[in-house]
Amino acid sequence: MRPERARTYQTEGIILNRRDWGEADRLITLFTPEYGKLRVVAVSARKPTTRKSGHLELFTRGRFVLARGRTFDKLTQAQTLDYFEGVRRDLARIGQAGMLCELVDRFFEEADAAPAVYDLLHNALLALNSGDPGDLVLLHFQMHLFDLVGYRPALHECVVCGEPVAPVAQFISVELGGVVCPTCRQRLREEEGAAAEQLVRPLSLNALKVLRFLQTAPWPRVRKLRLPDDVREEVRTLLELWATHHLERGLRSGRFLREVEAWYDAKKKP
Ligand SMILES: [Zn+2]
């Protein structure tokens, strides 16, 4: 929670979102280690002469001074700590950083303090900035975000019968929260018919291994992973489905990333 008594307070934060507000103001969504997500107004931030505006770009990490207000607190000072220039030089990385921010924005209500998520986001931005593989940054981030918000996929025991998962192709269910073994899937199909097809989708053994690796391995090992295209696509689709199921709405930046990639692919073709 915000400090209740002080009229002004300071915090470090990462800018998750910003939009125009009124005539010349901006409404900024900040993610902070101590106070969680805060929505604050940057007065006159859209006037070109204002000194604040340069510090208020999306996914900038900064130090902010805020004054308590009736509806929204007001941003009175902003100082950039990290602009993540390496990210901003590359359209695909900008999209990936945007997706990190959107996921955090959507998974958190205002004022839910979550210092571990702040560190996760900060480290993912640092990895993107240093040129680490962006697709892996995103997959690793999602897997750990699900863990920290209580939606960790169960990958070692079948979520229906509880038996250990054998090293063969499996099934997985977003609704049921993890891997469903072939025996349980067969039984579900006999009992539920077509409804089971909706509920439980196939999961290749390679994708299962990658999911487990993402869940437990530290980033320096994950960043060296080389994924065949089909496995990466399977894992990516599944994690996007996992996020959207829990958020109940489509992620805009996921679509944006696919558009960027389609654009690059089209350019590559002779
Ligand atoms: Zn089972």
TrEMBL record:
Q: Which Gene3D superfamilies does the record cross-reference, listed alphabetically?
A: Nucleic acid-binding proteins, Recombination protein O, C-terminal domain
Family matches, as Pfam families: RecO_C, RecO_N
Q: Does this UniProt record's set of keywords contain DNA repair?
A: yes
User: Mind naming one GO cellular-component term on file for this protein?
Assistant: bacterial nucleoid
Q: Which UniProt keywords apply?
A: DNA damage, DNA recombination, DNA repair
Q: Which domain of life is it from?
A: Bacteria
Q: Which intervals hold domain DNA replication/recombination mediator RecO N-terminal?
A: 8-84
GO process annotations (BP)? DNA recombination; double-strand break repair
Which family does the record assign?
Answer: Belongs to the RecO family.
What the protein does comes down to:
Involved in DNA repair and RecF pathway recombination.
Name of the protein in its database record = DNA repair protein RecO
Source species, please? Ardenticatena maritima
Gene this chain is encoded by: recO
